[in-house]
Amino acid sequence: MVREKNTIYQAATDGYVAAYAEINGFDLKALTDSSTPPTIVRAWEFDSSSDGAKGAVSMFVRKGDYWEIITTNAFYAVFWIPLEP
After folding, report:
1. What structural domains does the chain harbor?
2. How far is the C-alpha of 50 from the C-alpha of 41, rounded, in Å?
3. What is the pTM of this model?
């Protein structure tokens, strides 16, 4: 399921989040915990170059926890993959 950046979600099931960014310099963070907004950074990718760098982060999220992908990038993708029994 495609999701938006800089948006807080609450996981209805255990799941997996994958995110991608591409631009000249990027700051891509994946956060999740039981707080809203989430405060614990689980994955972080940063690049300050000007050569069209690419980066990706991923994390597992527990059912009921909140999660967010934070980036200022123009080109990005965020995916939620629910893990159901």
Report:
1. 2-82 (2.60.120)
2. 25
3. 0.89
- Tokens 């940063």 belong to 46
CA distance 25 to 47: 5
Residue linked to tokens 């926890």: 65
Token digits of residue 41? 């950074």
List for the chain the helix, strand, coil content (%; round to 5). 0, 60, 40
Q: Give the dihedral sign, CA 61/9/85/77.
A: negative
H or E segment to which residue 52 belongs: none
- The pLDDT tens digits along the chain (85 residues) read 999 999 999 999 999 999 988 877 778 899 999 999 999 999 998 877 767 678 899 999 999 999 999 987 667 899 999 998 6
User: Beta strands of 11-65 (E only): which ranges?
Assistant: 15-22, 26-33, 41-47, 54-61
